Amino acid sequence: MKERRRSWQVPKREATPEEWLLTRRRFMETVAVGSLLAVAAPAQRALAGAVSTGRATAPTGQRTDFGLDRALTDERTAATCSPYVELTPDRDAARFTETHAPVPCRIEIGGLVKRPLVLDHDALHRLAPIEERVYRLRCVEGWAAVVPWLGVPLAAVVEAARPLDSARFVRFESHPPVAPQAGGGHLRPPSPYSEGLTLAEATNELAFLATGIYGHDLPLHHGAPLRLVVPWKYAHKSIKAVTRIEFTATQPATFWNSIAPDEYPFHGNVDPHTPHPRWSQRREKMLGTGEVRETLPFNGYAEWVANLYV
Ligand SMILES: Nc1nc2c(c(=O)[nH]1)N[C@H]1C(S)=C(S)[C@@H](COP(=O)(O)O)O[C@H]1N2
Ligand SMILES: [Mo]
Q1: Of 194, 226, 238, which is best to mutate to test ligand 1, by the most ligand atoms within 8 angstroms of its C-beta?
Q2: Which of 154, 199, 257, 266 has the most crowded Cβ, counting Cβ within 10 A?
Q3: CA 247 to CA 163: how far, in whole Å?
Q4: Would the CB of 279 count as within 6 Å of ligand 1?
Q5: From CA 154, how far away is CA 169, in angstroms rounded?
Q6: In angstroms, what is the span from residue 200 Cα to ligand 1's centroid?
Q7: How far apart are CA 142 and CA 295, in angstroms?
Q8: Is 292 helix (H, G, I), strand (E, B) or coil?
Q9: What does pLDDT average to in each consecutive run of 10 residues of the chain (310 residues)?
Q10: What is the rounded distance in angstroms from the CA atom of residue 71 to the CA atom of residue 62?
């Protein structure tokens, strides 16, 4: 039976933009509508017996959900769709988690600051009590999830580094603890993956540095040992495996913006009224349940962040 495509569904010819931009060949070979939103079976199998080990990152602060309107995504489901271009052209980064031990956290903070810092896991957590934040996550491709993160507000790190008056932006650089896989030779991302925020965005209370997820340390596929979480922006802004944070006077280049500036504006704010050049952003599909929801301005966080953009 032929199903009619709904307006929110991405048609075949427009599917998987992130992958499409990186490699047309792969796109031709593998893309089907199902690959965009369906559960990746191999990743799910890999995860069936594997939950992240490592030291537990117990929250000492409260759990905050910032007006959450939907159920938590199951941990195994969240692992089945885990884009990570440095590791794999598919969304199956979780398969590396079984075979690659996490590396210790070490993050350099520099650029236009009074106090350059090198922080490990413990030093980071001395800056602020560990909090648990349950955030919506919305990928630019149209899928969404709800994830409980453990970590500290990014603002605590910004304050500790004491940015100079000339600092206007914050740049994040990623060095995943795994070398690109051999088969990924056609994948040539601008290296390394990097992201950026304005200083005002970086000090908003929602901007978060996560070292844990679902009550334990981050597994590799979710960005171990440390990743950024900016829930009001499309999820590609939430850069995994951050190793360097740099304060700059000018807007830094970012990974997706460098590849396709028209499709990935620097701010990357979730906005149902601004379609992606190749599909609508009005609706989103929840991972696992397949439930379709209206996409909310700023991914439902307008109350906390809309004032940054007036
Ligand atoms: N370093 C790095 N960070 C990254 C990515 C990536 O490819 N490399 N993918 C981004 C994209 S497109 C998404 S949707 C989210 C997915 O995060 P999750 O796997 O924890 O759900 O990570 C983002 N952070
Ligand atoms: Mo994404």
Answers
A1: 238
A2: 154
A3: 7
A4: no
A5: 13
A6: 22
A7: 9
A8: strand
A9: 39 43 37 31 34 47 89 96 89 87 92 98 94 97 97 98 98 87 57 95 98 95 97 98 98 95 96 95 97 98 97
A10: 19
Tokens of 222: 């979710």
Mutate to test the pocket of ligand 1, among 23, 73, 80, 84 (most ligand atoms within 8 A of CB): 84
Q: Which CATH architecture has domain 68-309?
A: Alpha-Beta Complex (3.90)
- Which residues lie below 8 Å from residue 131, measured CB to CB, with a gap of 6+? 59, 61, 62, 63, 64, 150, 151, 152, 153, 208
Q: Whose CA is nearest to atom 24 of ligand 1?
A: 239
CB 250 within 8 A of CB 256: no
Compute, in angstroms, the gap from residue 41 CA to the centroid of ligand 1. Answer: 19
- Which tokens belong to 92? 């199956």
Query: Is 83 touching ligand 1 by the criterion CB < 6 Å?
Result: yes
